[in-house]
């Protein structure tokens, strides 16, 4: 992320003016020794200076992906939140996500939310059982899109998502399904943008929370059948 930021930050133009922006990087976990040692090495003359590492904040792991990501948001200060997980490597067009969020705001959208696509450019939709549980009346590629590695404006999170990146009832899985699902219920269906892609890093899938998170998602989907557009994003469930 730092490399992409340093290489491309001067190339973004909004409304005819170059857009210079600052960056902070929040990482869940403890600072690796290699970075700590580098940061403390006053004689290092590499292009990756201590100023670059000062942009990184390591936040204590909260035990689950969802709680850790939500904690990082609470400690962040930026106006736009670009989310990555441990198995995705951003490409040079990573900051196009920022441009897409600005476009949504300028178009008058209540919520500014988008997501990267994988390099394969494939699209995923929420499960049919979730669509049916909410009585959305859609199937196939008319279902809400899953928003993998989503990005948001801070205003969207604070005003419409209850101050969290992901519904806090989840632990790891189905969070991006529920995000796309909620946007559909809200009346602003969101899609992943092909203007920003990631490269997969094969680190394996975490499955230990799948049963719990599927039950959470089913209960949210069922509750949405009655609540529809009044459904709260961070709705609490009894699982």
Automatic annotation (TrEMBL):
Q: Please give the name of this protein.
A: Glycosyltransferase 2-like domain-containing protein
């Amino acid at each position: 992320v730092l490399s992409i930021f340093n290489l491309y930050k001067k190339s973004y133009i909004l409304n005819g003016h170059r857009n210079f922006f600052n960056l902070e990087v929040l990482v869940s976990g403890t600072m690796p020794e290699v970075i700590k040692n580098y940061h403390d090495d006053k004689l290092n003359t590499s292009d990756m200076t201590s100023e670059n590492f000062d942009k990184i904040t390591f936040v204590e792991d909260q035990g689950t992906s969802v709680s850790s990501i939500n904690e990082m948001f609470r400690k962040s200060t930026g106006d736009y939140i670009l989310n990555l997980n441990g198995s995705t490597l951003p490409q040079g067009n990573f900051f196009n996500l920022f441009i897409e969020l600005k476009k949504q705001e300028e178009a008058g959208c209540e919520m500014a939310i988008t997501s990267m696509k994988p390099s394969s450019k494939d699209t995923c939709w929420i499960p049919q059982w979730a669509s049916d549980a909410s009585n959305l009346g859609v199937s196939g590629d008319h279902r809400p899109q899953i928003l993998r590695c989503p990005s948001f404006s801070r205003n969207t999170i604070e005003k419409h998502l209850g101050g969290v990146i992901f519904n806090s009832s989840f632990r790891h899985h189905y969070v991006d399904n529920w995000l796309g699902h909620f946007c559909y219920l809200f009346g602003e269906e969101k899609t992943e943008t092909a203007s920003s892609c990631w490269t997969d890093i094969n680190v394996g899938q975490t499955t230990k929370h799948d049963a719990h998170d599927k039950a959470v998602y089913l209960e949210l989907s069922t509750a949405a059948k009655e609540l529809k557009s009044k459904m709260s994003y961070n709705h609490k469930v009894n699982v």
